[in-house]
Amino acid sequence: MKQWHLAPLLALCTILVTSTAASAQMTIDVTKITCDQFLGGKVADSRSVTIWMSGYYHGMTRNTLLDVNALQQDSQAVMDYCIGHPSVILMDAVTALFGKKN
Fold first, then answer.
1. What integer best gives the mean pLDDT of the chain?
2. Is residue 86 part of a domain?
3. Which residues contact 95 (CB under 8 A, 6 or more apart)?
4. Alpha-carbon distance 33 to 88, whole Å?
5. Is pLDDT larger for residue 12 or for residue 67?
6. Can you tell me whether residue 34 is helix, strand or coil?
7. What average pLDDT score do residues 14-31 get?
8. 41: closest CA among 57, 56, 23, 28?
9. Is the dihedral of CA 52, 55, 85, 81 positive or negative?
10. Is residue 73 in a domain?
11. How many domains does the chain have?
12. Which domain holds residue 80?
């Protein structure tokens, strides 16, 4: 390999390792997120949490379909519920709205 190819390759590897390490350091216990934290994006981006929650509950029922309109409507319903119940745990809010998905 020529010497001038090595520098960009090393730079790319450094960027990939650094970005992977940085993102790998953040884990969140979703069972502890309150509605207030969810609405304020205090723990993580609310959109990411919404998508994760949807996948979690749909996975429990083995539902592999993604209904984008339903996801948006359900997300709005959770936000509306959380506005009135800021201290409720987010997973409890979802269960209250949509029933236990077991």
1. 81
2. yes
3. 101
4. 9
5. 67
6. strand
7. 65
8. 28
9. positive
10. yes
11. 1
12. 27-98
Residue at token pair 């970005």: 19
Q: Please write the tens of the pLDDT for every residue from 23-51.
A: 556 888 999 999 999 999 998 888 899 99
pLDDT of residue 100: 61
Q: Are residues 86 and 36 in contact, defined by beta-carbon separation less than 8 angstroms?
A: yes
- In angstroms, the CA 79 to CA 58 distance is 19
Of 101, 27, 71, the C-alpha closest to 91 is 101
Alpha-carbon dihedral angle through residues 43, 48, 51, 53, given to the nearest 10 degrees = -10
Domain for residue 20, yes or no? Answer: no
Tell me if 60 is assigned to some domain: yes
CB within 8 Å of 70: residues ≥ 6 apart: none
CATH for 78: 1.10.890.10
